[in-house]
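Write out the 3D structure for:
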Amino acid sequence: MSHPEHEPAAPPPGESFADKAYIPAILRGIRLTVNRFFQKKATVQYPEEGIYDPEASDIAIGVPNPRYRGEHILVKDEQGREKCVACLLCMAACPALCIYIEPEPSPPEWTDRERRPRVFELDMLRCIYCGYCEEACPCDAIRLTPKFYTPTTSRAERVYDKPRLLENNPAAQIPQRPRK
């Protein structure tokens, strides 16, 4: 009959030679790597493939967060004109100083405003996507959309001018705030 007090006790965790040499951890890491290697592809070739594509549901992220702040747009009014009245509040509110606006008088047939932006530039490389410009705008003229960052090959392509901001994401042109 053997007594438990006469059997050699197992060393506490981390005290055995195998634990000190990290052998179990190395084997777990190799097993994980080999399992991942033989699984289906785990990357998405963005922007050619979307990360929310239904046909890639096994590797896609799923549904975008509704609070996600992506690329900017300038919103159009009911007549298809930019809503911006060149009040410069978004430029003043921007902590990254990435918005540049030059106002000009609006055409005489535009009776609802005195000014409009002649130049509206947004440097997307400097932008920190904080949303302060959107919050500061009194007429809902600038908006951050759920559109992801568009890859480019030069810095100049990341400075969005007024025409690009007006046409950036047509699906986000729907009104969000009620008319005043």
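The chain has a mean pLDDT of 84.
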